[in-house]
Amino acid sequence: MVRLIAALVGIFFSGMLLYSFGSGAVAYISEPPAATAEHEFHLHPKEIEWSFNGPLGHYDRQQLQRGFQVFSEVCSACHSLRLVAFRDLKDLGYNEAEIKAIAKNWKIKTPDVDPKTGEPSTRPPVPADKFPLVFANDVAARAANNNAVPPDLSLMTKSRHDGSNYVHSLLTGYQAQPAALLKEFPDSKTPEGLHYNPYFANLNLAMPPPLTAEGQVTYGEGQPKPTVDQMSQDVAAFLTWTAEPKMEARKSAGLAVVFFLLVATVLAYMSYQTIWAGKKH
Questions:
Q1: Of the four listed, 13, 30, 113, 162, which is most buried by Cβ atoms within 10 Å?
Q2: How many Å apart are CA 202 and CA 1, to the nearest integer?
Q3: What's the Rg (C-alpha) of the chain?
């Protein structure tokens, strides 16, 4: 009796599930959701051949240094790197003296407490410090950025789909709002104070174009020409490193594990053949 009741309950719930799925499918086909400007005009990030792509990929240290230069001269005015310490820059090829100089001359000072008075104070960062926050809190950030809070960039390329390509596409994607969009969606005009960018989820963002002209950042001798596209690629590569500083070690470990498994599989098969060779007959 219990089994019969359980079977009937299962059949009932299965039937309701099929009914819900069928009615939902019919409703979607007969009355499809209205098209939106975001759905019609949002673009997927442009594909870039990064040096760190693929299982054998690795970071280009010179590109990472250029990207850090772009970040420090342009992006750091609004965005923080709260999960990155100055001493981590040694992975980019900077020596100890250079890291100390970078920390000491950083525009934002590290919050501290005056040991004599106990009052809040600031001091120049040292290599062991994380990059200090640009704004003390969200209230200060909104007050300085037209009511928008600039996101921390430490994990930006991991928190966005296809992160490295997304950052590059976003930085190079600012443009005038297409006439076709306004013709099809007249109520979707970019609001005052926002900027149209088809690579952003809702097409309009508060951040104005940060990279606007060739040579905005001056690269050293022997480096590529600092075009907007090149600077965008460099800072995107740098932010990929901040999000995945151990990527190269992870890939090396993965290749070693795959090689070990291949060898172990061959040895196991040979052992199987040897041990059971006489038993099969």
A1: 162
A2: 57
A3: 27
Q: Which residues contact 5 (CB under 8 A, 6 or more apart)?
A: none
CA dist., res. 75 & res. 232, Å (int): 11
Q: Where are the alpha helices (DSSP H) in the chain?
A: 2-30, 37-41, 61-73, 96-104, 138-144, 156-159, 163-172, 179-184, 228-243, 247-276
Upper half-sphere CA count for residue 279 (Cβ side, 13 Å): 5
Alpha-carbon span 89 to 64, nearest angstrom: 10
* Cβ-proximal residues to 191 (8 Å cutoff; 6+ apart), any chain: 204
Residue 1: how many CB atoms within 10 A of its CB?
Answer: 5
Average pLDDT, the chain: 91
Q: How far apart are CA 88 and CA 157, in angstroms?
A: 18
SS3 annotation, 66-133: HHHHHHHHCHHHCCCCCCCEHHHHHHHCCCHHHHHHHHHCCCCCEEEECCCCCCEEEECCCCCCECCC
Matching residue, tokens 């952003």 = 200
